[in-house]
Structure formats: C-alpha cells, structure tokens
Amino acid sequence: MLEIKRLHVGKRLSEVAIHNHTVYLAGQIAEDTTADIRGQTREVLGHVDRLLAESGSDKTCILSTQIYIADMALFPAMNEEWDAWVAQGHTPPRATVEAKLANPACLVEIVVVAAQR
Asked: SUPFAM superfamilies in the record, alphabetically (predicted)?
C-alpha cells in the first residue's frame, strides 16, 4: 500500500491528505467570518494556495473543486473572486451548491482535489 501523508492533523480532521501523488484538501473556510462573500472567498482561496504549495502542488494542478455557498444570491460576487484567482487555461471541473454550513457566519466553503507537480 502506498503511504498516506497527512498535514495539519487535528482531533477531528486533517487539513490535507496526500496519496498516490493526489492532494485532498479538507473544506476550507474563512477565519474572518465578519468579511463579506468577497473577503471570505479571497481568504479561502489563500488557504487553498498555501495548502497546495505545502503539498507540492498549485492551482494549475487542481483536478476538481466543490464550492458550498450559504446563499446563491452571493454566487455572482463569489464567482468574480474565483475568476480573478483561477489559473486561466487550467480551470478545473467544479460544482457549486447552496448549503447550510456548519457555522452560520461562514458564507463559503471550498473543497479541492489536486495532483502534485
């Protein structure tokens, strides 16, 4: 069996699992929940960038993304932040759904799977 490497291991979850050169990120949320959807999305994408870099990957290697948004009325603003961040020519498959998030102050949660470089 190939090794499974975990980063930022906590009691409830690991922020990252790496197996067979594939990086799996836990759902990323903003720490600053006072920010609007734009600010929370920017912060979350920053977490994604940091964790992918730490895992030997980057946003050009994303294989799939799942975005959970608290209210679809926020979708256009979230998309503007996503569009400014995503690597053109490397846009990954993506699903976006409205969901009641565990913390009501969180407006967006993003899950990413990526290949290592």
From this structure: YjgF-like (SSF55298)
As a whole number of angstroms, the distance between CA 6 and CA 17 comes to: 4
Q: Encode pLDDT of 86-100 as tens digits.
A: 999 999 999 999 999
| Helix (DSSP H) and strand (DSSP E) numbers for the chain | 2, 6
Give the closest residue to 70 by CA, choosing from 47, 104, 110, 94: 104
Question: Does residue 17 sit in helix, strand or coil?
Answer: strand
Kindly report, residue by residue over 5-39, the tens digit of the pLDDT: 999 999 999 999 999 999 999 999 999 999 999 99
Question: 111 pairs with which residues across the strands?
Answer: 66
CA gap 63, 51 in Å, rounded: 15
Cα–Cα distance for residue pair 106/34, rounded to 1 Å: 9
Alpha carbon distance 22, 113 (integer Å): 7
